[in-house]
Amino acid sequence: MKITQKHINDLSYKIVGCAIEVHKNLGPGLLEGIYEHCLMKELRDAGLDARNQEIVSIRYKDEKLDIPLRLDILVNDLIIIELKAIESVLPVHKAQLLSYLKLTNKPKGLLINFNSTNITKDLIPLVTEEFSKLPLE
Q1: pLDDT score for 66
Q2: Three-state secondary-structure class, residue 75
Q3: Would you list the domain boundaries of the chain?
Q4: Cβ distance 102 to 128 under 8 Å?
Q5: What is residue 67's DSSP assignment?
Q6: 14-65 pLDDT, tens digit each
Q7: How far apart are CA 113 and CA 82, in angstroms?
């Protein structure tokens, strides 16, 4: 399959649908880990290759650091999902996702806060330079 901006955006749409399903069933107010577990089930049920708590390698200059950094969910080896269950998303949360995207060279990330009344409204999609290099279709 050819990786295009359209493919990644379609995949994002599918992911958001899964998050909406979890939110519709559980509502706000639970711990992030519960949402992660349920979202993983929805993603896999939707036929997506979803892996949670993926370790991200960190290099500082020429040295690989032996410090575990884990991202919440990686879907189809293309989209990073950063989950939150907090009152409000802060700039540091966006910076965290941007750092994950940079360290992994992934094209897109989704910051999803389950402590929300509307997942779609509060969703923060972020794209990288890698995304802009992909063909549109």
Answers
A1: 87
A2: strand
A3: 5-133
A4: yes
A5: E
A6: 999 999 999 999 999 999 999 999 999 999 999 999 999 999 888 889 998 9
A7: 9
